[in-house]
Amino acid sequence: MAHASQKSLFDAALLGPACINAVTKLDPRQMVKNPVMFVVEVVAAFTTLLFVRDVVAGGQNLAFTGQIILWLWFTVLFANFAEAVAEGRGKAQAESLRRTRTETTAKLLTGAAALPGGPRDAHRVVPGPDLKVGDVVLVEAGDLIPSDGEVIEGVASVNEAAITGESAPVIRESGGDRSAVTGGTQVLSDWIRVRITAAAGSTFIDRMIALVEGAARQKTPNEIALNILLAGLTIVFVFAVGSIPSFASYAGGAIPMTVLVALFVTLIPTTIGALLSAIGIAGMDRLVRFNVLAMSGRAVEAAGDVDTLLLDKTGTITLGNRQATAFRPVRGVTAEALADAAQLASLADETPEGRSIVVLAKEQYGIRARDMASLAATFVPFTAQSRMSGIDLDGSSIRKGAVEAVIASLESAPVPIATGATARALHPRLDMVAAQEIRAIAEEIAKAGGTPLAVARDGQLLGVVHLKDIVKGGIRERFAELRRMGIRTVMITGDNPMTAAAIAAEAGVDDFLAQATPEDKLALIRKEQAQGKLVAMCGDGTNDAPALAQADVGVAMNTGTVAAREAGNMVDLDSDPTKLIEIVEIGKQLLMTRGALTTFSIANDVAKYFAIIPAMFLAFYPQLQTLNVMGLASPQSAILSAIIFNALIIVALIPLALKGVRYRAVGAAALLRRNLLVYGLGGILVPFVGIKLIDLAVTALHLA
Amino acid sequence: MTLIGWIQIALYCAVVLALVKPLGLYMTRVFTGERTLLSPVLGPVERGLYRLAGLDERQEQHWLAYAGAMVVFHILGFLVLYGILRLQAVLPLNPADQSAVAPDLAFNTSASFITNTNWQSYGGESTLSYLSQMLGLTHQNFLSAASGMAAAVALIRGFSRASTRTLGSFWVDLTRATLYVLLPLCIVYTLFLVWQGIPQTLGASVDATTLEGAKQTIALGPVASQVAIKLLGTNGGGFFNANAAHPFENPTALANFVQMVSIFAIGAALTNVFGRMVGDERQGWAILAAMGVLFIAGVAVTYWAEAAGTPLLHGLGLEGGNLEGKEVRFGIVGSALFAVITTAASCGAVNAMHDSFTALGGMIPLINMQLGEIIVGGVGAGLYGMLIFVVVAIFVAGLMVGRTPEYLGKKIEAKEVKMAMLGILCLPLMMLGFTALATVLPAGLAGPANAGPHGFSEILYAYTSAAANNGSAFAGLSANTLFYNSTLALAMLVGRFFVKIPALAIAGSLAAKKTVPASAGTFPTHGGLFVGLLVGVIVIIGGLTFFPALALGPIVEHLAGQAGQTFATGG
């Protein structure tokens, strides 16, 4: 959907339904959610009743009163129209999503067949919506994945165009960080065994539909506060206008109800009141078109407020993954022996680094890939605590990992790995000389910005694999921009401090967290938050989940695990961590648009006073003609022009509300100066010109 | 307008500015409980008072407890004052044998003095005994001012503290404001005023025989002490009916100048206390600058309008400025400046009759009060009133930097906006609502001395002055009636407590929040841009509400006057 649906602001296909919606939204039960426009509707209905009475009883000035009432209704309709247009764009996207959620069937596996490695043909075909959480299904080439789930066995290429709009297939496989599959996407090749993690109606696509349609839209904290301000201003003007009849009667005159209502409606902040919800919906929509799904408007607002950005080094700051580029053995070990051990330790290691070691070993020394099963080897997976992985085979144990982690493991309790003749290995002694040498090599690699990976076999240090990072082009400029926005960037990496420092300096980040465990990450977020800062981060692995949940803005990668996707408050469908920067900009844009239109709306009042006040009191205080600085033709044309301007400005500003005020990373002071000039000063001046022009038109057309 | 007039205005501003820093530093030390020059003398007294009251000075209060203590304190103060006024005939120190004050007038006067308004529906020398003046009024002059300062300091703590539930102790703040700030300043100030010729005696009035042989009664009393606090505490209630226009309340040019300075002194210095306590003095200067811009604009208009005079009199061959209702001793600039200061600062003392100002000259005092007395304002009240506008200004425009609004590291959210709007709403409700009532009810219409727009201005001025807790009168309005006494009292109470309590609520909410460190993305609130923004929001939100009323009062009167029209008297 997303990329393709870059619809123009006023798509003809959207305008029709929006017009209809504008009318159906007149339902007071819906209007009451928007206090300012609800008040306008109430006074419009009230004056309409008075008008009907006057028509029946035969009153004066009916044409004028009728026009005022007409424009009051237009004011409400224009507001509804703005909201309907904003929603319409989301609805169109929801439609295309719904089409992908057509009735699916699922191949349910039960009993032994549900376990990894179980038989695949013993499945039963059931309707997709009947699946429960925890069911295991088989999905084969050509099948639609029936619901959200986690791959527990197999590798398959999956077409996720339905949610990402990207037609290139992606790989989904068991284990690791790419195990999550989304209901409604299609398996193109191979097969996978999937454990269902979401019940019908609460899948990812369901939530997406609810979000883009605005059905699940709740007012954000800032919107609530702004609504209070607008309601307060409305009440202030109730006092200002409500006291006028008494004042007029003191002066020996009377003001028609329609004129009072016209003054009141033009003074209350209808412009921002009308556009407020459209701004919010459009903000979410901008994210969706950017292929990011925010689970709440609150998250989008928080994005604008972010003070600290935690960025994973890999994939965000550096290109893709580290690649092994050299084997650096310690004295007395051949490079080939090191390559052999490193390759063995990496056989079952599915990480890109692990694979690159296997590739390098084959390229440089022609060591061929071996089969784990035939070696009768046991894989020792990487854990965040041990920070090592490896293999146990044939009474021998090979470990690779961060240099300090490997050395530390050798310093601590020996691992019993064999008996009898190989008893030597029962008491692995840390060879201090080798350790020193390893550290020297590691430092050399680290200083060059590379990552050293130590390899040890049976307690003996063999050498170091040199892994290299490549910093993405243009990232330095992005960080400079963020700094101008007042956002501090922190690079998170598992690398040792020296490597991290080298890359941090190259990329231009403000700070880095080296040798980061998930606990460190969480602690860093808490520390920043304790200082009152808002933290944004992105992550994909299960071990990122706590940090994602703790961060104020947690962007989970769509390729990530189910746990990560649940923990974050945004999901990036393109799985591009660099997007965090754009997300922040979109959040800022949303807040700026709100502020700009509020300022504009309030500043407008100056001109409206000058249009209506002299017109209103002219009958008994002709001296007030001096205040008619715009030189409006007659009292009636002045009042009519003001109310027409007030209604038309809503329509005129819909594009701005939907597109948003452009954010420039120039620092807060410069930004404020510019916006105050455009929307504050502009807000004072524009209506003087606008009302005058409308007055000329109204007079030319003999409307008043 | 004359050069010497402008020099006088400039000199005034310079003297006030020069006092801001030293007084600000002193008060900061007082309210943060640090040692000051006077601690050796006053420290034991302070501690003695706490021991007497059984108060632990380290016991801080939640905002609700703070506000509760303040309300209880004022209710008790109200009852005592009401009692004294009603019983003054039987109480001592009544050499002129004044009778008991009528119930509605006693109610109005009590409300007036506990709210720091000092609206006087009566003539002091002809209504009150010395006991009522000293124990009743002067006493409240101190305490209502101290209570305003306490609320301001509590709000400042809301900004300066983080992640805490307490705002300090109302009792401690009240005691310190009175003991360390108001009392010592007043003692010195009273001595100065006595030197200038203001009487300070408990003796009865003096009878004199004039040159024509007529007998004249010259009222005397403990005047100097009450004048000192009336100005320093921005109370404004005069000892005499003529207030600062009376030669015994304002005898010399020097006394007049010092009196004007003393009106602004504490209010202006509180902005510095604010800056110091939030850790950035520039923040205080920015607030003061916004006040200064509005002040200078007001002075310029009033001085110009008064110096220009009225075309009607010019037509009669009376060239020059408008001297009607002004003391020739002070002249046009001295009167215009005093009028703007006293209405900007919620003081209400007058050295000229505002009713006799030109239409535009009299409109500025009206606008000053309608904005909510935030141009320096009442002691404490001016600062917390201004900070309420800051909350609104920051909320509206702060979004435009692309962050949810924050001021001094505090996020401005729904609760703060709600309370700020409550504080802003109650003023137009009282000022416009009661004016609307008085302009249609016979009881209200009986009040003004003039017909037409000027009579309207008289009513509007009365409710504006009451709700803004200013207390100055436009004169011309006969306000000592059941209707005016009770409605004005209500306006004073609402105008005081429905701003003060929301301000404390904001303080409580802010104190509980974390302080976000400033960055390049934060809206800078110490520069000219912020000052301009704040002034704009005050004028548009605070001022435009009153545009219809002003158009029907001073504006139309001015336009008519320019065209040579008058409105029939009577009324």
Molecular structure report:
The complex is a heterodimer of chains A (704) and B (571). Chain A has 704 residues and is α+β, with helices and mostly antiparallel strands. Chain A folds into four domains: 12-92 and 211-290 and 584-701, no CATH class; 105-145 and 148-197, Calcium-transporting ATPase, cytoplasmic transduction domain A (Distorted Sandwich); 292-317 and 472-573, Rossmann fold, CATH 3.40.50; 319-470, Calcium-transporting ATPase, cytoplasmic domain N (3-Layer(aba) Sandwich). Chain B has 571 residues and is mainly alpha-helical. Chain B has helices at 3-31, 39-53, 63-87, 103-114, 124-127, 130-160, 170-196, 223-232, 253-277, 281-308, 311-315, 331-344, 359-370, 381-398, 414-438, 442-445, 452-467, 482-511, 528-543, 547-562, and strands spanning 206-209, 215-218, 406-407, 410-411. In chain B, the strands form two sheets. A two-stranded antiparallel ribbon of chain B has the order 1-2. At the A-B interface, helix 7, helix 8, helix 11, helix 22 and helix 23 of A face helix 14, helix 15, helix 17, helix 19 and helix 20 of B.
